[in-house]
Amino acid sequence: MGSDSAVTAPGAVVLASGGMDSCVCAALAMRDYATPNPPALLHVDYGQRTEARERQAFNALADHYRIARRLVAACPGLAAIGGSALTDATIPVPAAAPAPGEIPVTYVPFRNAHFLALAVSWAEVLGAKVILIGAVEPDSSGYPDCRPAYYAAFNRLIATGTRHGDIEVRTPLIAMRKAAIIRLGLELSAPLHLSWSCYQGSDRACGECDSCRLRLQAFAEAGVPDPAPYR
Amino acid sequence: MGSDSAVTAPGAVVLASGGMDSCVCAALAMRDYATPNPPALLHVDYGQRTEARERQAFNALADHYRIARRLVAACPGLAAIGGSALTDATIPVPAAAPAPGEIPVTYVPFRNAHFLALAVSWAEVLGAKVILIGAVEPDSSGYPDCRPAYYAAFNRLIATGTRHGDIEVRTPLIAMRKAAIIRLGLELSAPLHLSWSCYQGSDRACGECDSCRLRLQAFAEAGVPDPAPYR
After folding, report:
1. Inter-chain contact A153–B150, Cβ cutoff 8 Å?
2. B13 touching A, CB under 8 A?
3. CA-CA distance, A28 to A33, in Å (whole number)?
4. Cβ(A77)–Cβ(B74) under 8 Å?
5. Comparing C-alpha atoms, which of B6, B13, B9 is closest to residue B169?
6. Within 10 A of B14 (CB to CB), how many other CB atoms are there?
7. What CA–CA distances, in Å, run from B82 to A60, B89, B92, B111?
8. ipTM of the complex
9. Beta carbons within 10 angstroms of residue A137's beta carbon
10. What's the order of all strands across the beta sheet hosting B13-15?
């Protein structure tokens, strides 16, 4: 760390699920956070039902940008704790959209704190000063950890709880509607065809879960076809 | 969750490494946080070099208090990230105390955020409203994530990032000197003989690492012999 990391530090640590938002976020990082070194890419395996497919998308994204510094960090505690349709196979993923104001059963309790904690720990070791996450508030599923106030609170936590207190989480997409994210992705030539959003997970997306529904709506709104394969 | 958890919820989720502070913290929880149900005990395996010995101490503590609801959550990401003498076998644990104001190489980057994130996720699923952690500021190793400001920031994060925003981390020992923690432990009949603090880890404590040094100093100050076995 210290003087070493000033030379070897990536321009940012980018959290990437392999979904559409993180694909565009990585494209932004390649444009804006490539100094002194290319961004590092972090994926979290938390025992989610679609992990194998997500990881495939993550690696395809990292390969596309020739990013050498990539890490798949396992977080098996979240699946052991359960309480979500994404990590507990006995809770089905609902096909319908949640009622307005309702937090859906796909909410994984306090999930993004685990993601960000891993990103901060890695950033401290690598010497990176910026963490990017493709969290989005509008058109999202109503998860509490996708709101700007949450990330502001996380940055205050980093300021008090790290070696130098000088790492910052940034959420460049947070206020954007999904259709705008797609348009930004097209402008940046982001490899949207490699991204994966479906909660069911197989070779082809189901087109029916909440995540597919939001994605398809957004592509329709952006006026372009979704390049991902559907059943 | 919801109505179910109001009946089954533990009085608290207690983070326990198996060390002296968490032993006293668990004893406090047994006295003050046993309603509507006994506390739940959480241990984190983050690939630390002494995990096998710590886990033995954790289970002995849970057995002592007949706590059924216990969870050992793995967090292998921290060891994969490294950067600390506790998780990277190539970085030796120093025998000497760190210089004043210096953060020692045993600091695990942003470690307590991982612990607390697991505790919050579990508390959300169990319906617990309180998390106890035996963090201590005085006489500690100078880790940034052992200060009151850090826990205040974490509570603001929970308020914005959870389903109901009604879980609180409490640090009942944070302002206590180690000798006072020992006296409190004796008053509560905490099973201090089962606790384990050494960074080296084997059948007997080394008596020389920073953690042993702080522990032995504290017992000397409290005027009682340390019941743990030393080399």
Report:
1. no
2. no
3. 8
4. yes
5. B13
6. 31
7. 26, 9, 13, 11
8. 0.92
9. 18
10. B70-74, B40-45, B13-15, B130-132, B168-170
Q: Which residue has the higher pLDDT, A49 or A40?
A: A40
Q: Tell me which of B110, B125, B147, B158 to substitute to probe the interface with A (most A C-beta atoms closer than 10 Å).
A: B110
The span from the CA of A16 to the CA of A19, in Å, is 7
- Say if strands B168-170 and B130-132 run parallel, antiparallel, or are unpaired: parallel
Residue showing tokens 């910026």: A130
Domains of chain B: 3-222 (3.40.50.620)
CA angle at A200 for the pair A113 and A68, rounded to the nearest 5° = 55
> Which residue in chain B has the smallest CA separation from A44?
B77
Tell me, yes or no, if A118 comes closer than 8 A to chain B by beta carbon: yes
CB B78 within 8 A of CB B114: yes
User: Which chain B positions have a beta carbon within 8 Å of A144's beta carbon?
Assistant: 160-163, 165
CB contact under 8 A, A124 and B114: no
d(CA B61, CA B23): 7
Q: What is the DSSP letter of A89?
A: T
What's the mean pLDDT in A190-215? 89
Residue in B closest to A163 by C-alpha: B144
Alpha helices in chain A (DSSP H): 3-8, 20-32, 51-64, 76-81, 111-126, 148-161, 178-187, 210-222
Q: pLDDT, tens digit, for every residue of B143-182?
A: 888 899 999 999 999 999 999 999 999 999 999 999 999 9
User: How many A×B Cβ pairs under 8 Å?
Assistant: 148
**pLDDT tens digits along B89-140:** 888 877 777 777 778 888 889 999 999 999 999 999 999 999 999 999 886 6
The alpha-carbon radius of gyration of chain A (Å, integer) is: 17
B80 and chain A: CB distance < 8 Å anywhere? Answer: yes
Half-sphere exposure of A4 (CA within 13 A, CB side): 5
Tokens read off for B52: 């096998």
Q: Which among B96, B99, B47, B44 is positioned nearest to B70, based on CA atoms?
A: B44
pTM: 0.93
The helix or strand, by DSSP H or E, that contains position B54, with its residue range, turns out to be helix B51-64
Contacts of B120 in chain A (CB under 8 A): 109-110, 113
d(CA B161, CA B147): 21
